[in-house]
């Protein structure tokens, strides 16, 4: 949408406030989808939820692509938002449940690489063909070059994962289902141990029953720590303002002195390319050096980048871009480094972490609640950013995000234990006490150094 809004505004003759609503409301709409997705996946299964999400999104994509006015566009945005909410919850949960422990982070992060590749391709199409149809076709039609756009992949997703891959953890009562997902004897032993450890839900109970009581009303100390860590991570990921950098990058470049639409679009495309490249860092290292190191490095770099961007924009706002032309390059570079640092940790790891720390019974609805908080925060920021920077200047807005990023780093350091190398069933031992998880990680490192084969 960052590039498409330039032409949508011209086509439909809409105001900045309407652009704010258009950009931000999909995140508000996805709240409904994510809130329903957890219960749906517990009730109907992960596979059916994936198919359901793709069906909803396909309908929304068609409505948006062929909208003839702003009202119809917003209807399509609402329908697509429901699909987004469902998909953002079910994709990481499914990946985490079927992946081996040693490559769980890699496989969950791979989803985001594919998303960013599609975004880059769509941004490039809009930039190369800046006209009314260039923002419509990426939403619902196939591209002649062989890549595909929003509506087409959702049709392919209708097939869904194979039936036997519903997810052994979700169907832990069915030994045969568990062994279908398991390809090696080690995984079979893990799943056999899982079957012995997980209390079977009586067939008379409704799937997902009692979750909110165990999650929010009367949580145990480890579960309370998990809820704070997972939901806090999802909230702070968006509160740091990265979506404002990405979605409103053309306006940031305009404030920095770039007035040409083509140059703003090219700079916006570069943001998407940068984001995609640095997600690869997370994907290939998340299972090697761990979630915690990447999160702290990512957040620290983002904080520095946002401070640089805020300072540069403040100086340009006060003295003009002509007097400090070199600052224009620094501001553009700061947007790239902000996106790069975010993408090498905070972006994809928030989804990896949230999908792996909840206990089995609470996982789907806990992750759904995390997605809802993430989308609500993003929607509020996107719908208010233009008004915010008009009230306190664009530099002031990014100083605000800088302060939030500092708080985020402290939160990560104090409350988020390292989960690398842990099976999904062993996560709870890390939570409940700060000193407890520090001791646990120390013992795990000793075990790895003394007997690497058993530790693996």
Notes on the structure:
Helices cover 76% and strands 0% of the residues. It is an all-alpha fold and 456 residues long. The chain has a single domain, classed as Growth Hormone, Chain: A, CATH 1.20.1250.20. InterPro entries: MFS_dom, MFS_sugar_transport-like, MFS_trans_sf, Myo-inositol_Transporter, Sugar/inositol_transpt, Sugar_transporter_CS. Residues 1-420 form the Major facilitator superfamily (MFS) profile domain. It is found in: Membrane. Keywords: Membrane, Transmembrane, Transmembrane helix, Transport. The chain crosses the membrane at residues 48-67, 73-95, 265-286, 293-314, 326-353, 373-392, 398-417.
Which labels suit this protein?
single chain, 456 residues, mainly alpha, Growth Hormone, Chain: A, 21 helices, 76% helix, Sugar_transporter_CS, Myo-inositol_Transporter, transmembrane, MFS_trans_sf, transport
What can be said about this structure in brief?
Helix content is 76%, strand content 0%. The chain has 21 helices and no strands. It is a multi-pass membrane protein.
Topology:
Elements: H1 4-12, H2 16-44, H3 46-65, H4 70-98, H5 104-128, H6 132-140, H7 151-156, H8 175-181, H9 185-197, H10 211-217, H11 221-239, H12 242-247, H13 249-255, H14 261-285, H15 291-319, H16 325-343, H17 346-357, H18 360-392, H19 394-415, H20 434-450, H21 452-455
What do we call the CATH homologous superfamily?
MFS general substrate transporter like domains
Q: Gyration radius, to the nearest Å? A: 22 Å
- CATH topology call: Growth Hormone, Chain: A
Instruction: Please identify the structural class as seen in this structure.
Output: mainly alpha
Total domain modules: 1
Distance from first to last alpha carbon: 44 Å
**CATH architecture term:** Up-down Bundle
The proportion of strand residues reads: under 5%
């Amino acid at each position: 949408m960052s590039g498409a809004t330039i032409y949508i505004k011209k086509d439909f003759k809409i105001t900045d406030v309407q652009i704010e609503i258009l950009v931000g409301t999909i995140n508000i709409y996805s709240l409904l989808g994510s809130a329903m997705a957890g219960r749906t996946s517990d009730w109907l299964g992960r596979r059916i939820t994936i198919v359901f999400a793709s069906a909803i999104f396909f309908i929304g994509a068609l409505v948006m692509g062929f909208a003839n006015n702003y009202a119809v566009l917003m209807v399509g945005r609402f329908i697509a938002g429901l699909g987004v909410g469902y998909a953002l919850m079910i994709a990481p949960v499914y990946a985490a449940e079927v992946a081996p422990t040693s490559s769980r982070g890699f496989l969950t992060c791979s989803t985001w690489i594919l998303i960013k590749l599609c975004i880059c391709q769509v941004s490039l199409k809009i930039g190369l063909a800046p006209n009314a149809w260039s923002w419509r076709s990426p939403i619902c039609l196939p591209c002649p070059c062989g890549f595909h756009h929003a509506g087409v992949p959702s049709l392919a997703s209708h097939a869904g994962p194979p039936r036997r891959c519903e997810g052994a953890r979700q169907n832990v009562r069915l030994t045969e289902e568990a062994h279908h997902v398991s390809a090696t004897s080690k995984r079979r032993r893990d799943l056999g141990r899982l079957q012995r450890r997980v209390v079977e839900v009586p067939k008379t109970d409704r799937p997902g029953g009692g979750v909110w009581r165990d999650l929010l009303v009367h949580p145990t100390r480890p579960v309370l720590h998990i809820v704070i860590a997972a939901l806090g991570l999802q909230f702070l990921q968006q509160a740091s303002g990265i979506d404002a950098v990405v979605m409103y990058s053309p306006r940031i470049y305009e404030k920095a002195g770039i007035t040409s639409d083509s140059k703003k679009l090219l700079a916006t495309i570069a943001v998407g390319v940068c984001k995609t490249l640095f997600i690869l860092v997370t994907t290939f290292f998340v299972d090697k050096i761990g979630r915690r190191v990447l999160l702290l490095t990512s957040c620290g770099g983002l904080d520095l980048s946002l401070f640089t961007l805020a300072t540069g924009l403040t100086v340009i706002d006060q003295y003009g871009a002509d007097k400090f032309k070199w600052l224009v390059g620094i501001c553009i570079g700061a947007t790239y480094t902000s996106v790069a640092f975010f993408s090498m940790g905070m972006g994809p790891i928030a989804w990896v972490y949230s999908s792996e720390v909840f206990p089995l019974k609470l996982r789907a609805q806990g992750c759904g609640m995390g997605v809802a908080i993430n989308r609500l925060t993003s929607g509020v920021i996107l719908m208010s950013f233009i008004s915010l920077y008009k009230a306190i200047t664009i530099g002031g807005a990014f100083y605000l995000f800088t302060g939030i990023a500092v708080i985020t780093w402290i939160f990560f350091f104090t409350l988020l234990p390292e989960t690398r190398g842990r099976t999904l069933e062993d996560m709870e031992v890390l939570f409940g006490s700060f000193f407890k998880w520090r001791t646990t990680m120390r013992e795990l490192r000793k075990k790895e150094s003394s007997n690497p084969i058993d530790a693996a």
